[in-house]
Amino acid sequence: MKKNKQVFFQPAQTEQQKKKRIRNIIITAVVLAIAAVACYFAMPKNKDLSQSSIFDKAEVEALAEQVVDYINEENFDGLKEMAVDEMSSIMNKERMDEAKARVSEDWGEFQSITNISTTEVTQRGVTAALAYVTADYENAEIRYTFAFDEDMKLASLGIQ
User: Which positions, given as ranges, span the membrane (predicted)?
Assistant: First the structure.
């Protein structure tokens, strides 16, 4: 039994079709280049805080320690003063207790800060200093993440 083979052939492209194809390739390349630049701009860029021209590493570490002290003392007025306006409304006992409970029900007494590491992050034209703080409590090891804006205001707080 013989199988019929179908032969497909492409007729020669006209000059107009060649130009259209080249134009489509160029448009696609330009769109991809723009997308790549946009992705690069949107990605966070990190650098060591000691290399920062905006932030002082010692000042950021001191502020991070102060935030931990305020959290331990439940000094929400102090936290509100340190925070940007958008965050000051959530700096209260109820919200902090909710955040603490998600990590552990009973932290116990504060023991010490065991580690602080810092970095500068720039994303979408906004630069912030990040402080990663590890603190020991009687019953838990807590990791805080603080972000400070260029005015050294607390812009973000995370508890793990």
Answer: 21-43
**Residue 89 to residues 18, 71, 81, 83, 84, Cα–Cα distance (Å):** 62, 15, 11, 9, 9
Q: Which residues, including other chains, have CB under 8 Å from residue 131's CB and lie 6 or more apart?
A: 60, 61, 63, 64, 116, 117, 118, 144, 145, 146, 147, 148
CA distances from 100 to 38, 94, 97, 142, 144 (A): 37, 10, 5, 9, 11
Which structural domain range is residue 132 located in? 45-159
pLDDT in tens, 126-153: 899 999 999 999 999 999 999 999 999 9
Element (H, E) at 93: helix 93-103
pTM beyond 0.70: yes
Instruction: Tell me the CATH number at 112.
Output: 3.10.450.590
